[in-house]
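lol forgot to send this yesterday, sorry. struct tokens for the thing we talked abt
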């Protein structure tokens, strides 16, 4: 953590934000996407990307009028990824975002959290699945895959009695 703090102090905030977005993404992105995710203006993002391409940290692919950017696959980029990496706990983020939603009474971890994935049961009445899907998509964009099932208390109790939810269960909320 100390190394990252020193490095970000050496870099200006805009360059650090753009780098963070690129280093945490596994996919190619357009200038506009990078600008939005980093909260840096399009003009500044363009200038920063141009510099990073010159430094051979970022590659730019273009065809006709489209240009996409992604990280190079080299030692320098791997070094930066290590420095800028922030462990993201998608499960905690999910619980914090979902526990206040109307209808959610309990959140149960089904099984265990492994390799950036987890399965949860949402117990309550009138849970907004569209909102939950939106939250899951946001969390997946940050590198954590979350599967869920919404059940009423009665459904959960009955399915547990039938042995459908055997194994490790941990109440998260």
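and heres what i got for the seq, position by position
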């Amino acid at each position: 953590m100390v190394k990252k703090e020193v490095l970000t102090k050496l870099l200006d905030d805009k360059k650090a934000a753009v780098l963070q977005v690129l280093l945490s993404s596994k996919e190619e992105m357009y200038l506009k996407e990078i600008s939005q995710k980093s909260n840096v203006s399009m003009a500044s993002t363009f200038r920063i990307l141009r510099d990073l391409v010159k430094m051979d940290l970022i590659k730019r692919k273009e065809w006709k009028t489209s240009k996409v950017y992604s990280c190079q696959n080299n030692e320098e980029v791997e070094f930066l990824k290590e420095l800028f990496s922030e462990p993201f706990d998608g499960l905690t983020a999910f619980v914090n975002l979902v526990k206040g939603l109307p209808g959610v009474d309990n959140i149960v971890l089904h099984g265990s959290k492994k390799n950036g994935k987890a399965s949860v049961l949402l117990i309550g009445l009138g849970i907004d699945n569209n909102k939950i899907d939106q939250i899951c998509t946001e969390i997946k964009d940050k590198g954590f895959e979350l599967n869920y099932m919404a059940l009423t208390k009665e459904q959960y109790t009955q399915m547990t009695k039938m042995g459908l939810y055997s194994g490790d269960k941990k109440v998260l909320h």
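Residues 90-171 form a domain with the GMP Synthetase; Chain A, domain 3 fold (CATH 3.30.300). anyway ping me if u want another try
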